[in-house]
Specification:
InterPro entries: DNA-bd_dom_put_sf (IPR009061). This is MerR-like DNA binding protein. With 100 residues, the protein is mostly helical. The protein has two domains: 47 residues, no CATH class; 52 residues. It is 64% helix and 6% strand. It has a two-stranded antiparallel ribbon. The longest helix is centred in the last third of the chain and has 36 residues.
Length: 100
């Protein structure tokens, strides 16, 4: 990666910027550098070893569970917001029940 000076900003190749975004996404998703480093090497080699695929599958499953938990929390918040905008005399806790 060879930055070139243009005023006070560095300019990088598009591929380098995309690589940085990918790394940032991996970190944001909770992947650690011990997984990201071999993953990047595998991407460059265009080959993923079965053990790495197994680790990625576990991470994917973990992320999917987190997404589902966040969606459920969002649903419950939406119910609370609806209750706040449309007050009722009574509010049942079953409205926040994940099964309803």
């Amino acid at each position: 990666m060879r930055p070139g000076r243009a005023g006070h900003q560095y300019q990088f190749r598009h591929e380098a910027v995309e690589r940085i975004r990918l790394i940032q996404q991996f970190y944001a998703a909770g992947l650690g550098s011990r997984l990201i480093a071999p993953l990047l090497a595998a991407i460059d080699a265009q080959h993923l070893e079965p053990a790495l695929v197994q680790r990625l599958t576990g991470e994917h499953d973990r992320i999917a569970r987190q997404v589902a938990d966040l969606q459920e929390a969002g649903r419950r918040l939406a119910v609370l917001i609806d209750i706040a905008h449309h007050p009722r005399e009574t509010c049942s806790s079953t409205e926040l029940d994940p099964l309803t």
